[in-house]
Amino acid sequence: MAKLKDVCRHIRSKNAGPFWVTVDLFFDGPEKYAKYHQSEALHANVFAAIYGTDPTHVKRTAVDSLHMVKISYPRPEPQGWKGERDMHAGQQYVSLLDIELD
Amino acid sequence: MDSPSFSETIKTTELISEKTGSNQVCVMVPAGALGAGIRKEHVRRGITAGAEIIALDAGSTDSGPSYLARGVSKFNREAVKRDLEVIMAARAEARIPLLIGSCGTSGCDLAVDWTRDIVIEIARNLGQTPKIAILYSEQSRDVLKDKNTKGKIHALSPSVKLTDEVIDSCEHIVALMGVEPYIAALREGADIVLGGRTTDTAILAAFPLMRGAGAGAAWHSSKVAECGGVCTVNRGDGGVLMKVGQDSFEIEPLSLQNKCDVHSISAHMLYENSDPYRLIEPSGVLDVLGANYTQLNSRMVRVTGSRFEPRPYTMKLEGAGKGAFQTISFIGIRDPAVLASLNEFHDRLHAGLTDRINKTFGDEAGAYDVSLRIYGWNAVSGRDMPATAAPPHEVGVMLVITAETQDLATRMSKTCNPIFFHFPLAPNMPQPSYAFPFTPAEIERGQLFEFRLNHVVEVEHGLELVRTQWIDLADASIGT
After folding, report:
1. Is the pLDDT of residue B5 over 50?
2. How far apart are CA B130 and CA B66, in angstroms?
C-alpha cells in the first residue's frame, strides 16, 4: 500500500483568502496520477475529519495536464483568530503525508 | 458613469500599441508587492522592452486582519518610499502611467492617504508634477446596511448572512474594485493612479482592457503576473512583463537571467486560489480550463484559449474588527522526564494555570483563554501526538493568554509565571526550573483583530461605490 508522500513529487498547503485553505497534490508523473488521484482515501470526508471542517464545503478539482489535484476547505476559524497556530496554513499539508492510498 | 456605454467603449477600442505599433499591449509588473524591493535594472529593462505602463499591487489580506483593522501598512515607509522612487523616476522618464492598487496593504482610506503622502513627497523631491488620481473604496457602514436591507449583500461560503451588528463591529470595510475606476482615471489623463483595495488582477488588467485586448487574455495574464516573479523559474528574481493581445498573451521575466516555463506559468493559477480553473472577478469569471501553454523561446511562454465570462457586477467586501488582547511568554525544556511525557505535562500544566487564574481573578477574569503551544512537539498541528511518538531533544513552550484588556492579560501572565517556570511533571517531584530566554518574561502582543466579512455586494456598475479624487501637482495652488 502506497502513502501519499510516496506518490507525489510535491505537496503544499496555503491560505486562499482569510476563510479558506487550499492543498495542492502534485503526483509524480502520469502513471501515479492515473492510479491514485481518485483514491477513496482522498475523499472529502477524510479531509473534513483531518481539518475539522464540514465535508459538504470541501472542494476538489483534478488538473489532468499538471497531474495534480487541488482540494480546498474552509478554515474552522478565520485566519488570525486567537487560537491561530498556522497563519498562512503553510504547514497543514503535513497531516496528509502518511495517508494510505489503495 | 453609465455601465453599458462604458463596457462598449472598452470593446470598440482598436488594439494597437501606441509605443510599438504591435497588436499587443505591454504591461510591466516590477514586483509582486510595492515595498518588497524593486530593482532599478529590471525596471530599465522593462522600459527598453516596450512597457507602456507600470502596474502593481501593494496589498493583500495574506498577513492577517491586523493591517485592515488598524489601517497601517505591512511594509514600512522607507521600503515603500524606496520602491516608489524607482518606479516614479522610471515612469516620468518614459512618460508612461503608473497604477498602484490596494495601497498600504489593506487599501482602506487611511492606507491610501499614507501612500499618497509618500508619492507627493517623492514627486516634489524629484521635481515631478504628475496628475494623480486617487480611488477610494472604503465603504461607509450606512451604505452597506442599506445595501444589506435591500438584499444586495450575499454571504460567500462558509459564512452566513450579514447583520448590522457585524457591520458595526468592523473598524474598516473595503470593497474590492475591478478595472473600471482605473480605466476611467487613465482616460481622464492620470499619470499616477493610487487605488484603494482592488483585486490583484484588476490592477494589471485595466490597461490592456482599456486598449482593447481580449478579456480572457487580459485577465489570465494578470492572474499569472500578479505576484511578480512568483510565476517565473527563479521566483525571487524580480518582476515580469506581460504582452497581451486579442486571443493570447506572453509572459517573460524582467531579469535576463531568469525565465518562465510552461510549468511555472500554468502552475501559478493554482497558487492561493481555491479553484484552479476559475477566478471570480467583479465583472465576471476567468475560465482557464481550455488554456494552452507554449514555450515561445527560452524565457517566454505564450498562452491561448483563456476565456472571460461577464457576470452581473459584484464587489467582494473585506472587513476587520477589534478583538481581545494577548500576552505571551516562552520557556525551553530539556528535562528528559518531561520530554518523555509531554502530552500529560501539557494537560496538567494547562489545568494548573487555569486553576491559578480562576482563583486569583474570579469574576474579573472575564472571557479569557489559556493556550500552551509546545514547539518541537505539536504546537503547529495542535493535535494530540500518539503515545508511541519518540521524545524530542528539547522543546519550547509558548504560553498565550488572551483576555479582554492588555492589562488583564499581562497580570494573568505574571500570576502564571511561577507555575509556568516551576511546574513539576508530578506533584511529588522536586521543583524544576525551566529556561526562560527573556526578561521580563511577558511579551505584550497587543490587540487581536479578526476578519469578519466574507461577502459580496451587488452594484449597478464598477464605479458606484468608488470615490475618485484628483491631485494635480502642476497646479501651483497646492500648498507644500
Report:
1. no
2. 32
Distance from CA of B51 to the nearest CA of A (A): 31
Domain ranges of chain B: 12-137+176-313+459-472, 323-452
Q: Chain B contact for A89, CB < 8 A?
A: no
The correct answer on CATH 3.30.70.600 for the domain covering B323-452 is: yes
Using the Cβ of A97 and the Cβ atoms of chain B, whether some distance falls under 8 Å is answered with no
Report the chain A residue with the minimal C-alpha distance to residue B371.
A83
CA B102 to each of CA B62, B135, B195: distance values in angstroms, whole numbers, following the listed order: 13, 10, 6
Q: Which three cell numbers stand for residue B465?
A: 461605490
Q: Please write the tens of the pLDDT for every residue from B383-434.
A: 888 888 999 999 999 999 999 999 999 999 999 999 999 999 999 999 999 9
Q: Which of A20, A61, A85 sits opposite B380 (nearest CB)?
A: A85
Question: Could you report the per-residue pLDDT of B104-146, keeping only the tens digit for each?
Answer: 999 999 999 999 999 999 999 999 999 999 999 999 999 999 9
Please give the C-alpha separations between residue B128 and each of A70, B12, B152, B470, in angstroms, as whole numbers: 48, 34, 43, 16
Interface pTM, i.e. ipTM: 0.89
Reported as type and span, the H/E element at residue B339 is: helix B336-339
Work out how many CB contacts closer than 8 A connect A with B.
98
pLDDT given for residue B6 in this prediction: 44
pTM here is 0.90
CA distances from B209 to B62, B202, B249, B407, B418 (A): 27, 10, 13, 53, 64
- Which of B277, B323, B451 lies at the smallest CB-CB distance from A18? B451
Instruction: Give B477 or B404, the one with higher predicted confidence.
Output: B404
Closest-CA distance, A36 to chain B, in angstroms, reads 19
